[in-house]
Design goal:
Elements: H1 5-23, H2 42-51, H3 53-60, H4 77-95, H5 100-104, E1 106-109, E2 112-115, H6 116-140, H7 153-159
Antiparallel strand pairs: 1-2
Length: 160
Amino acid sequence: MYRTVQDFLGEWASASAGTIRVLESLTDDKLDQVIVKGHNSLGWLGWHLATCPMFFGGQVGLTLTPVGNPKEVPAHAAVIVEAYKNIAANIASEVEKLTDEQMVESVQTFAGLMPRGAMLRSLIDHQTHHRGQMTVLLRQAGLRVPGVIGPTREEQAQMK
């Protein structure tokens, strides 16, 4: 749980930058990549990361600008990347308006009363979960897998 605005903003800057690196590995021709038929595709996961912050932001009272319809996955990877960059910046600018006292204030969420800072932690956890799914699909699709929290095998080999 975040107790201060600056704690969230520091981690959000790092987490959203990692998500951007993952999204920038997408290509138009691989957006339909799935682990097995019937599961979420790379395109769906990327678009979900760009659109789901509206839900989390609404839960904590942020005023966010929608980046698109969550049910209409774009056909171009660049649209997904740009949409995510927009919502990530929007989240940072809206959270900057909060006070530290508001971070620990309880708000009504889908899971019941919860401190605002705990719900913002859930946003980052949710993003990390789906970003991890995407890295597996990127590798399966033969696309570049960027290091997010540490270097990938390929990045380690280049360091030698």
